[in-house]
Amino acid sequence: ADLHTAYTRAANLSRTAPDEEPDPVYFVDPAEHRLYEKVCGLRPIVTGAVAERRYGEALEKLSTLREPVDAFFDAVLVMDENRTLQKNRLALLRAVVRLVHQVADLTKIPALRKG
To answer: Which of 11, 17, 71, 107 fits 90 for a cystine, CB–CB 3.0-4.6 Å?
Structure first.
C-alpha cells in the first residue's frame, strides 16, 4: 500500500479515538515500537519543514511512514479485546494522523483517491 492508503486506514480507524499520546509501556509487538519511534523521529523534521514552507520535503519524509504503518497493521489487531491495548493502538494511529495533518489531510486530495 502507498502512504495515502496507509494514512486513510489510520485516519478511518482512529477517527473517534481520543487525542492522546500512546504509551509505549503497552506496546506488545515490535511493529508498535517501530511505528512509534518513526513518528517521534519525524515530528521535529516535519514540523521544521512545514514551518519553512518546504511541503515537498515534508511529504517526502512522511512517505517513510508507509512501511512501518503497513507493518503495524500486519502485526497487530487494532481493535483488540483488551481495551487498554486497543486504546493505545488507536492513540498511535492518531499520532500518525496528527503528523500527516501538519501537511495535509490526504483523504481530501482527489488526485490521490483511488477509483
So the answer is: 17
Does the residue 62 lie in any domain? yes
Structural domain including 65 reads: 3-14+29-106
pLDDT at 3: 78
C-alpha distances (whole Å) from 90 to each of 2, 9, 51, 58, 61 are 20, 11, 27, 24, 22
Give a yes or no: residue 22 inside a domain. Answer: no
> Domain tally for the chain?
1
Query: What is the DSSP secondary-structure string of 43-107?
Result: HHHHHHHHHTT-HHHHHHHHGGGHHHHHHHHHH--TT-SSHHHHHHHHHHHHHHHHHHHTT--GG
Residue 63 lies in a domain: yes
pTM over the 0.85 mark: yes
Q: What is the pLDDT of residues 4-27, one digit of tens each?
A: 788 889 999 999 888 899 999 999
